[in-house]
Amino acid sequence: MSNVNQLLPNPSILKDVQILVVDNDADSRYLCTVLFESYGATVTTTEFINDAIALIERFTPDILICEIRFMDEDIWPLIRRIRAVSLSRDQIIPILIASAYCLANFAQDLIANAEAYLLKPFDVESLVDEVWNLVHLSKTSLQPHIQDWVANHENWKNHEAPEMSLV
After folding, report:
1. pTM to 2 decimal places
2. What value does the mean pLDDT take over residues 6-20?
3. Which of 23, 102, 31, 30 is nearest to 66 (CA)?
């Protein structure tokens, strides 16, 4: 890991960020772990939605990154639970959907309920940028109102994105 950190322009850009990754693909979970830990984040991964819901009861992630296609599991309970936790803990927890699945109405409904969406395979720099943007904005928002925050996120992302190079 030290060799990777020497090559990164800002290896602590995600320091103290708690990331929960829910993905049924082991390679995706591994990629997210190695990538985000190299930037200083603490990454918790799981391949099952029910396990993710149980994890949320024990710790509050700063961001949820999840796939939307799962065998025999529905993603909606996880989305509802993360929103309930956000409100009860007075903390915004953004949801980033990272999936190869985007064509069906089901996927479009889920995407509309998330703060961001990246289509797999994604560019790792775009993924790190998006996570940083979402976490930074969620921590600097004055009011923890999800609907207001989403509107502000779109404005901030399009007009006031920080200058940051990960290359």
Report:
1. 0.78
2. 81
3. 23
